[in-house]
Amino acid sequence: MAVFFLVVLSIYSLANIYIYFKGYNALPVLQANRLIYALAFFLFSVIFIAAKIIESKHSSLITDILNIIGGFWLAFMLYGFLFFFLSDLILLLLRITGTISAENIIHFRKWAFITTIAASVILIAGGFVNAVIPVVKQYDITINKRAGDVRNLRIAAVSDIHLGSIIRKRSIKKLSGMITELKPDLILLLGDIVDGEIGPVLRDDLLKYFTYPDCVDGLYAVTGNHEFIGGGSVTIPYIESKGIRVLKDEMVILKGGIQLIGRIDRDSRRFYAKERMSLSDLMEKADTSKPVILLDHQPFHLDEAAKSGADLQLSGHTHNGQMWPLNYVTKKIYELSYGYLKKGNCNFIVSSGYGLWGPRVRSGSRSEVVLINITFTGTKP
User: Fold this and answer.
1) What is the pTM assigned to this prediction?
2) Is residue 162 part of a domain?
């Protein structure tokens, strides 16, 4: 973890230093007001980190505001770096080809700065609007197994709510309304219910605003990596205190003999040095002649699940990159970073999530609730 945070902090610092000098070299007014510019830039660059440190000690409306401002700065860091870097490549090409004179370089830098700011603001503003308008993503799948007298199962699944300083009461109430309108038989929460530090959630008891209709098969959840960041020994009992059954390497039998298996998140090892049960050990308890639904927050090792006898795996975690062009990065990391895939007889669905981490910006994906309609077509033996 120390190495991880050192790498992240180094990248964060270098990106800010790069953007600082791009602005400083582009506009004479910033050079004339060097001290003011340096102080203002420093404050914006440290605000997100400061907010997280303060929040870990004491959560308040002030830390919420700092997190929001710091989140938008993170978004600007991404787009500022990308567009400034692109302008540097263009300038290098113009210099190599001799198509720009020395006196025009100053004008190029100024307009590169203006263009970068404008493009970043447009992307961030559009991404903010996109983030606060969640959609329902529907999948219709068939499982060729018999589930007693149950022929159809309607599941509402939600991943990555990230309740905390940014996703608060209004968002959780909206989620509750969306789920109620879907009238599901079963509700599944796919991890990262809480953003990290539990303080902002406990301050206003945010999960008390999560309401849902009576379901035939109830409400279940699994842990995500963020449940462990702020202390799983506090976060998980809080979630369970709201009547949410958190499956921790456990299996429950639903109506029709449908088996629901929930895995502890793989990052429990990183935070608590605790290994989760292997999938093969979990599946030993299952009857694979009947439907098996697997919940695993992070969509790794799909081949293992496909060979296990499971019929459906639901995951989240990726946010589908959340901000363009990071969605292309997640596609390289995960076999399935978003959407639907079938391997063998197993159906895989990865959600982009309802909430978000860091910036309240979604320029590369949508906030969503997943609706899965399952039809069981197995014949009676």
Assistant:
1) 0.90
2) yes
